[in-house]
Design goal:
14 strands; Rossmann fold; 8 helices; about 290 residues
Length: about 290
């Protein structure tokens, strides 16, 4: 088995992985991913006990137990570029021997549940509604760098989308990846479902105009009016597509639930989204440990 070079798999002097500063024994099989590092403590407040606390840069981690199940919560920061770091390093902790720099013979499957915030693309989705991402649409282009991209993507939806949108050819080709079916079934009750777009930015890539015009001023209207195989585009956020895509390629399970804190069609913003997302966190934890 080929050894992975030190420049490709960077291990810190204490034996932890480069960015996350975690060791293999410090992560659980079930991992809650949040964007905001302060939300790690909000999730961990529900734990019966906390056994690990680590932080490097925006990557804050706590591992503990809830209802007798071991769970890790980790902050990713904003964007799919950070997800590329987080998912690959978590997979390395699970499936690569860091001392020998070799892939392990036995695959360890991880479960990723992203709990985040997002903006609704449909007028009938009120703020503070939890939306579960049945399918992720990646505007970010991250998955296009990986072999096997087409095998785990829904190419039919991709082609329908490109035809409908008249997509600008200098943009990254969007990709569509489905959530894990079992996880989706466990967490779906009480959630609005649909297609979630992961954008590579908050302003122009999500159709916002401040002082800079955007290439397609009608992009959000065209997206809101489109259904693909009966599924609507429900919301924008910035991480889901990379989580779904990398998880599929690496043999892990993933699902995303985001509370709507802004309705883009109605111009509304949540008055108390932090209270509402605590309710979503508690529901997710209960369902994962039932």
């Amino acid at each position: 088995m080929a050894q992975i070079q030190a420049s490709e798999l960077i291990v810190n002097p204490d034996g932890s992985i480069f960015h996350l500063h975690l060791k293999p024994e410090e992560i659980a099989d079930t991992i809650i991913l949040v964007g905001d590092q302060n939300r790690v403590d909000v999730v961990a407040e529900f734990f019966d006990k906390v056994e690990v606390t680590k932080q490097n840069r925006e990557f804050r981690t706590k591992t503990g137990t809830y209802n007798g199940s071991r769970i890790t919560v980790l902050s990713t920061g904003i964007g799919t570029d950070n997800i590329d770091i987080v998912v690959n390093e978590l997979d390395a902790l699970a499936n690569i021997d860091l001392d020998k720099r070799e892939v392990k013979d036995t695959h360890r499957q991880l479960t990723f549940v992203r709990i985040g915030t997002s903006g609704a693309l449909q007028a009938d989705i009120p703020v503070d509604t939890p939306v579960i991402s049945k399918i992720a649409c990646g505007f970010d282009g991250l998955l296009n760098f990986y072999e096997g991209r087409d095998k785990i993507s829904n190419l039919a939806l991709e082609n329908q989308f490109l035809d409908h949108m008249g997509y600008y050819k200098k943009l990254a080709v969007p990709y569509f990846v489905e959530s894990d079916e079992d996880l989706y079934g466990i967490l779906k009750p009480g959630c609005t479902e649909g297609i979630t777009i992961s954008a590579p930015g908050f302003y122009g890539p999500q159709g916002r105009v401040l002082r800079l015009d955007i290439k397609d001023g009608d992009i959000n209207e065209k997206i809101s009016n489109l259904e693909l195989d009966g599924d609507r585009f429900t919301n924008y956020e910035m991480e889901c597509s990379a989580i779904y895509g990398l998880s599929k390629l690496l043999g892990h399970r993933a699902v995303t639930i985001c509370n709507i804190i802004a309705n883009r069609k109605r111009g509304e913003y949540s008055k108390d989204y932090k209270t509402e997302i605590k309710k979503t966190i508690k529901t997710v934890l209960d369902r994962l440990t039932y």
